[in-house]
Amino acid sequence: RFRFEFAGLVEQYPDIERESSGDPTFAIGGRDIVEELGDDNGSTVEASIDGRPVARGRLLATTGDVGDSEYTPGSSDRLNVGDVDLILELMKVDGRDVALVIEQVGT
User: Fold this and answer.
1) In this predicted model, which residue has the larger pLDDT, 76 or 102?
2) What DSSP character marks residue 39?
3) With CB atoms 3.0 to 4.6 Å apart as the test, which of 4, 11, 33, 50 could cross-link to 102 if both were Cys?
4) CA 45, CA 58: separation in Å to the nearest integer?
5) Residue 25's pLDDT band (cuts 50, 70, 90)
6) In this structure, are residues 56 and 46 in contact, taking their beta carbons and an 8 Å threshold?
7) CA distances for 45 relative to 4, 26, 61, 105, 107, angstroms
8) How far apart are CA 54 and CA 64, in angstroms?
């Protein structure tokens, strides 16, 4: 079982560079949340923002691609729990201090 806790300022398009994919869509407290969660794809988790449950289901965290040129643009990061897009949820609190918890449930 795992539990990720991200706390701090929510930043859209933070000044963080990735080595092999597009830059992160969001960071919390300066941490690249999608990249940190990527190794746990497929796990059943519960997500909460500021102690409020927002989603429960399978985790999908994938980093976007940079694209080959201006004619083949890159893809965006994806961060879903079940059918809830956590990127959209984070857009609602952009610029605020929040606590995001992603916790594995079940086995």
Assistant:
1) 102
2) G
3) 4
4) 6
5) confident
6) yes
7) 10, 20, 12, 5, 10
8) 23
Contact 98, 7 (CB under 8 A): yes
| Contact of 44 with 57, CB cutoff 8 Å | yes
Phi, psi torsion values for 56, nearest 5 degrees: -145, 130
What b/e sequence results for 40-76 when a residue is b if at least 16 CB atoms lie within 10 Å of its CB, and e otherwise? eeebebbbebeeeebbeeebbbbbbeeeeeeeeeeee
Residue type, 55: A
Cα distance between residue 11 and residue 28, in whole Å: 6
Most confident residue range from 63-67, 75-79, 85-89, 101-105: 101-105
Q: Please state the pTM of the whole predicted model.
A: 0.84
Check pLDDT > 80 for residue 75: no
- Dihedral sign of CA atoms 10, 11, 12, 13 in order: negative
